[in-house]
């Protein structure tokens, strides 16, 4: 499976090796900056310059949740290994942990002095790693 974004704010998922389109996603209003598969492989999370994070469900063939709360472009997104939480990294110098079940932001992590460019959960833990344009890496406990 290959996922690609395009200038017209669409993303497409293709099966390999035949190249057949599995799904096309529309909904973001600006370019896409990141994507990550759900641990079960049934969903996809995307981030965008439009300041949102969207969750797409393959069986429903569309967006099932839009997470809003960042003030600037969202550069990256990542699933927690349990599949109940999404992390996002933004140009607004913050990162957020989103509870997918309650559809709300659980934590906002502040401390970087410039854009947060990437975010990743340490597998099977509550530790989050962020990298920033301020030339630092930060480890966070997503519970506090």
Automatic annotation (TrEMBL):
Top-level taxonomic group: Eukaryota
InterPro entries: WD-F-box_domain-protein (IPR050995), WD40/YVTN_repeat-like_dom_sf (IPR015943), WD40_PAC1 (IPR020472), WD40_repeat_CS (IPR019775), WD40_repeat_dom_sf (IPR036322), WD40_rpt (IPR001680)
One GO CC term on file: axonemal central apparatus
Chain ranges passing through the membrane: none
Residue ranges of WD repeats: 1-24, 25-66, 67-108, 109-144
Pfam families membership: WD40
Keywords: Repeat, WD repeat
UniProt GO BP: axoneme assembly
PROSITE patterns tied to this protein: WD_REPEATS_1 (PS00678), WD_REPEATS_2 (PS50082), WD_REPEATS_REGION (PS50294)
SMART domains: WD40
Name the UniProt record assigns to this protein: SPG16 protein
Organism in which the protein naturally occurs: Calonectris borealis
